[in-house]
Amino acid sequence: MLGNALKSILKTLGGETSRGAAAEALPGAGLNLALGMLSGGPKAGLAYGAGDFLLNYPLVALARKISPPLKTEVKNVLTGVVKEVPVPSGLERGVNFAASIGSAPLVDYVTQGSLYPQIQPQVVSQLEQEQQQLLQRQAINRQQQAQQLAPGTMYQTVGLPRFQSPVPGITLSDETLRLLAEAY
């Protein structure tokens, strides 16, 4: 019984529709293999390529049964030989494209995202972040020194008039004004 089932599968896989479906599924699988290798290494490339082919092949074969490819004649101008070439139907092209796009999320779901390294976010204090932004501004604006900022903010204080009193009409001692000026 198992032998008969295996013979039936091999006979189906050896048919013209099956070979054509495999030929149409291979370019997308190759592209997913290459992109997977570039972004995640050989293991990810093989997984995405195999996932694409395993999803694409049966869907393209089914689309070919529903809407068979058209035959067109192509003539070689050098030799004069005319050859019939199958042209995929619109349904087959759409299914092929959708299956290639949909295969990557399915592979990620099956592998639970284990094909790519999990990156842990780096914890950075607000002060460190402000210092980094100041250095970036300094580099972009080609400044000799970093800009002065109000404490705890990114508010630039360069070019502002010197600090007087926080409340109009109140006079502060010279020592207090000096401390405020140093703070800002």
Q: Could you characterize the architecture of this molecule?
A:
The chain has 184 residues and is mainly alpha-helical. A two-stranded antiparallel ribbon has the order 1-2. The relative contact order is 0.08. The longest helix has 25 residues. It has two domains: 105 residues, no CATH class; 58 residues, no CATH class. Helices cover 59% and strands 7% of the residues. α2 crosses α4. A hairpin with a 6-residue loop joins β1 and β2.
**What level of helicity do the residues show?**
55-70%
The description of the largest β-sheet is: 2 strands, antiparallel
Provide mean pLDDT, rounded. Answer: 79
What is the number of E strands?
2
Shape: elongated
**Binned strand content:** 5-15%
How do the strands of the widest beta sheet line up side by side? Answer: 1-2
Query: Strand-and-helix sequence, N→C?
Result: HHHEEHHH
Low-confidence stretches: none
Count of runs of 4 or more consecutive helical residues: 6
**Domains (count):** 2
Report the end-to-end length measured between terminal Cα atoms: 88 Å
Give the tags.
184 residues, single chain, 6 helices, two-stranded antiparallel sheet
Topology:
Layout: H1 2-13, H2 16-40, H3 42-66, E1 70-75, E2 82-87, H4 90-111, H5 126-140, H6 174-183
Antiparallel strand pairs: 1-2
